[in-house]
Specification:
Largest sheet: 5 strands, antiparallel
Number of domains: 1
Radius of gyration: 16 Å
Strand content: 35-45%
């Protein structure tokens, strides 16, 4: 049996992550010392957390952690025989740009003759945001 995958639901994960990342990056210019920030968004079939992993003057590392319900998965950058790779469209305040999105090593998911690559249980990703000085 093929595992359930809901591309439209998966895209909303990325929309949430983009929104949360923008909110985290927008607060970088504040005078107060940076504090580790955590935001959580829960949906019926997954949980998404956004974390400020590292905050420096020249670079901010934003991480997010996704917990998937049993039977659900997210595709990797190379999805394999089926599926679509995640697409992230960033919108930053003036002076910021995104570094490369980094994924952990994917799992090989086999369903009969179809082989895909992704994450069936949970995954953590990170992105570097660099202010242009």
């Amino acid at each position: 049996m093929i595992a359930r995958n809901r591309p439209a639901e998966g895209l909303s994960v990325w929309a949430i992550l983009v929104s949360l990342a923008l909110m985290a990056v927008a607060g970088l210019g504040a005078a107060a010392p940076p504090l580790p920030a955590q935001t959580t968004e829960e949906k019926p079939l997954r949980r998404v957390e956004l974390l400020i992993l590292e905050d420096r003057l020249t670079e901010v590392t934003v991480g997010f952690h996704v917990e998937l319900a049993p039977g659900w998965f997210l595709y990797w950058l190379n999805p394999g025989d089926a599926g679509l790779a995640p697409v992230v469209r960033w919108q930053f305040p003036t002076g910021f740009e995104a570094g490369r999105l980094r994924f952990p090593t994917p799992q090989k998911i086999v369903h009969g003759d179809i082989v895909t690559y992704g994450f069936e249980e949970q995954k953590s990703d990170s992105i570097h945001h660099r202010p242009r000085l």
